Amino acid sequence: QMAKHKRLGVLHSVMSYFDAVTALIGNEDSCSIDAIIERKTNPELYQIAEQIQNSYLLHHVIINMMNVYCYRREYILIADLVEKYERMHAGTKNVGTKRILDFFFVFFEGISALCLARDTKQKKWRQVGEKSVKTMSQLVEYSVWNFENKLSLLQAELYYLNHRHAMAELKYQASITSAYNHRFFHEEAMARELYGIYLVENKMAVRGIPQLEMALDKYKKWGAVRKVDSLKEFI
After folding, report:
1. Model's pTM, two decimal places?
2. What is the tens place of the pLDDT at every residue in 117-167?
3. CA end-to-end span of the chain
4. 181 contacts: CB under 8 Å, gap ≥ 6
5. Which residues contact 49 (CB under 8 A, 6 or more apart)?
6. Residues of the chain whose pLDDT is less than 70?
7. Cβ contact 71:40 at 8 Å
8. Measured between alpha carbons, how far is 200 from 204 in angstroms, rounded to an integer?
9. Which member of 60, 108, 213, 224 lies 3.0 to 4.6 Å from 24 by CB, making a disulfide possible if both were Cys?
10. Residue 100: exposed, middle, or buried by beta-carbon count in 10 A (0-12, 13-18, 19+)?
11. Closest of 194, 173, 193, 176 to residue 184, by C-alpha
């Protein structure tokens, strides 16, 4: 109907979410889309958004791409998206206005930056991660339900980076509990995955493997089949 009535802006936005979903489930046939509609990928939609200077579409495309890269643990690819995102907002007059999905940007950027800081030892990633923790701490004041588990996971990664292992474990566990209680089962899966990786990397594989297996179960329930396959390969 959107194509029929030439609502291309809305259609492209929906396509962006569709592309992100199929990237995680790995089965386009399970998501119904009319065969007469020419499907666009997020990289293609990004080019379209830039050409027509559609900041609304560009925002959704970048967030969806960051989402996929974060769950795939392709953290370096997020760095390029961050640069595009910041370039998109450069020169915005009302810098105090925040889009409703910007908290996703803070979360995905923070997770990727803290992991990159640990892997590369580069100070710039630490600074980005610390900034994300600070911003998410402010967001928790507005909604514990939506942001508590995200803050705890960011804090866990920062404590891991700082070699404060006891606090890192407490925050991983707090993130898992909060995500479960607030019914963010996909984010519980991410927290269990990162906690499992933390345990394995710190020679506690006996404890880490069960966390990774529980993450697999949560991803299965979420329907992220392709993510399940990649995590199985990691295990």
Report:
1. 0.88
2. 999 999 999 999 999 999 999 999 999 999 999 999 999 999 999 999 999
3. 44
4. none
5. 12, 55, 57, 58, 61
6. 1-9, 27-37, 88-101
7. no
8. 5
9. 224
10. exposed
11. 176
